Every structure is written in C-alpha cells, then in structure tokens.
Amino acid sequence: MTDIIENKGNIDDHSALIIFGVTGDLAHRKLLPALYELARQEHLPEHFEIVGFARREWDDLLLRREMESAISTYARTQPVDKQVLHRLLSRCKYIQSTFEDPKGYQKLGKRIYAPVLASASVFCKRMEF
C-alpha cells in the first residue's frame, strides 16, 4: 500500500486494487472501510480504481451499493463523508466469475488494462488481495 501512497502525485500512474472475494466479510468489515479512510485522507492516487472479483451475480451498481452499506457501517470515521464516499465508489468495478474459470481472469485483464491500452503514456500497477 505504501507504493500507492508514495505515487499519489504522479498523474501518469494508473493503479488498480483487485479484491478477490469482494462480497465477503473481510472486504466489508476491513478492506473497504480502510480504503474509504485512505480516500478521506487523500492518500489514494488520482488514477486509482478498485476491481471486485467474486462469484455472486452482481454488477458494478450492486457492488457500489454493497460497498456504500459496508463503509457506512464499519468506517472508523463517522459520520461518513458522502462526497468522499461517492468519489471512491465511482472508481469501483465488478467482475463476476468463479475462481477456477480462466474466462473470468481474461475479463479482469481487459478491465484493468483498458486505461493502459487507451493511452501508451500510462503505466499501470496492480495489487491483489
């Protein structure tokens, strides 16, 4: 995570955090509230996105609704700043797949590398949980 914070000012960087099992309890109680706190403190880079990967038949909108609920419930800082929250949620995408299906990882690859393909000057970093 230090790598993301240190590169905050570099607008040529594109970072993606991939959360495998984003529909689970660990993500809801710990990871998502921690990401909100980083966003609230302006410690996330400008070109940062969160990609949730799980088996449930969700889409981007349902992921964002569930994330909003989890963050509103478990965030350390209360009340939650709705402007910060919505800015964070706008960076979230969802990939539905089983963990054994290679097609899911192909969809994931296309989703996280799309910004790189759109602009040859963008460097993409990724983190996976």
Q: What does the model show?
A:
The chain has helices at 2-6, 25-40, 60-74, 82-89, 102-118; strands spanning 13-20, 48-54, 92-96, 123-128. α2 packs across α3 (60-74). With 129 residues, it is an alpha/beta fold. It has a single domain, classed as Rossmann fold (3-Layer(aba) Sandwich). A four-stranded parallel beta sheet has the order 3-2-1-4, sandwiched between helices. It contains five helices and four strands. The longest helix has 17 residues, at 102-118. β1 (13-20), α2 (25-40) and β2 form a beta-alpha-beta unit.
Major sheet summary line: 4 strands, parallel
Q: Identify low-pLDDT runs.
A: 1-5, 7-12
The CATH superfamily appears as: NAD(P)-binding Rossmann-like Domain
Number of helices: 5
Order of helices and strands: HEHEHHEHE
Oligomerization state of this entry?
A: single chain
